[in-house]
């Protein structure tokens, strides 16, 4: 099971104020829209879970009716080389216009010793890891039981994240989202420091022998110390200590050339997942929703140009 189907993720979504449901054990999350409407989201299910969901189509429609859902989005934890065409055709799924989770990622097998993992890295990545060590960069996991220290670490992490988003023009969640995310027992906040100064912060999820590097931010200062390289390496080593079998770098692609090149330096296998699929329950409202979304995006773009 993927961590996005876990009880921990369910609890996190509820702390965000979202309603959650389970049909045949499969987590479904309701997202509010305008005029009292919603859309339903099923994150990262396996092929077997997808078949179970299709067979529960009556319960799905009942839930959609009760929640006034315009559509349901299903994201599959299935590689694109697989085929599930029968299930898609049976329930009138349509290819989604938008993914919520990254469609492409990089997965590193941890069923090998650290020397082998290092040997398979790009030579510049290995050099940068050792350089950061020699310069005195330190990596630690923030202690959630030390509330004062954890609060400071979280503030430093969010400050880095906010500065990065403003500089590189990408969207982030509000502060409360990340704090509630870190309330999950399966999440950890990693901190990179140099002489007491925080240079990077990363959030990692450890679930069922798999580690996922989800959120991260780096300081624009002291980039010459190459702290992100040592940070990534220490996260991999920590995952091995926890007996994880895989480390998921969580997202690569043409949209992020810099971060993709950085992650690929650590080795691993490129994975592309199947497209997300939607079930449209109310066609007129869905047409209006698509139109409203486009107009809203255009207005925000125009505002950003002023």
What is the gist of this entry?
The protein is of the alpha+beta class and 306 residues long. It is 42% helix and 26% strand. Strands 7-8-9-10-11-6-12 form a seven-stranded mixed beta sheet, sandwiched between helices. A six-stranded mixed beta sheet has the order 1-2-3-4-13-5, with helices on both faces.
Shape: globular
Task: Describe the strand arrangement of the main beta sheet, using strand numbers.
Answer: 7-8-9-10-11-6-12
Class of the largest domain in CATH?
Alpha Beta
Q: Round the Cα radius of gyration to an integer and report it.
A: 21 Å
Q: What is the tally of beta strands?
A: 13
Question: Could you say which structural class the secondary elements and strand pairing correspond to?
Answer: alpha+beta
| Strand fraction | 25-35%
Low-pLDDT ranges: none
The helix content is 40-55%
Largest sheet: 7 strands, mixed
Overall average residue pLDDT? 93
Domains (count): 2
* CATH topology-level fold name of the largest domain: Aminopeptidase
């Amino acid at each position: 099971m993927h961590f996005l189907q876990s009880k921990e993720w369910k609890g996190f979504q509820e702390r965000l104020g979202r309603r959650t449901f389970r049909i045949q054990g499969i987590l479904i999350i309701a997202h509010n829209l305008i005029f009292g409407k919603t859309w339903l989201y099923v994150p990262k299910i396996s092929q077997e879970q997808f078949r179970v969901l299709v067979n529960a189509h009556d319960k799905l429609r009942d839930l959609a009716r009760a929640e006034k859902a315009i559509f349901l989005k299903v994201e599959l934890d299935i590689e694109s080389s697989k085929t599930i065409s029968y299930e898609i055709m049976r329930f009138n799924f349509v290819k989604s216009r938008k993914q919520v989770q990254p469609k492409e990622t990089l997965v590193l097998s941890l069923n090998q010793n650290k020397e082998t993992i290092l040997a398979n890295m790009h030579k510049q990545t290995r050099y940068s890891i050792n350089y950061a060590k020699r310069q005195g960069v330190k990596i630690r996991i923030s202690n959630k039981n030390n509330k004062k220290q954890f609060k400071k670490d979280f503030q430093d992490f969010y400050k880095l994240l906010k500065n990065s988003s403003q500089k590189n023009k990408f969207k982030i969640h509000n502060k409360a989202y990340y704090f509630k995310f870190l309330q999950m027992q399966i999440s950890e906040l990693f901190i990179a420091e140099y002489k007491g100064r925080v240079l990077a912060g990363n959030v990692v999820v450890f679930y069922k022998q798999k580690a996922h590097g989800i959120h991260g931010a780096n300081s624009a200062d002291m980039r010459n110390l190459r702290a992100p390289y040592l940070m990534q390496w220490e996260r991999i080593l920590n995952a091995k200590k926890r007996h994880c079998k895989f480390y998921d770098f969580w997202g690569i692609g043409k949209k992020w050339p810099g971060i993709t090149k950085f992650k690929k330096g650590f080795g691993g296998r490129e994975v592309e997942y199947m497209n997300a699929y939607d079930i449209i329950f109310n066609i007129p409202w869905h047409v209006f929703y698509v139109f409203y979304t486009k107009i809203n995006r255009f207005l925000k773009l125009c505002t950003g140009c002023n």
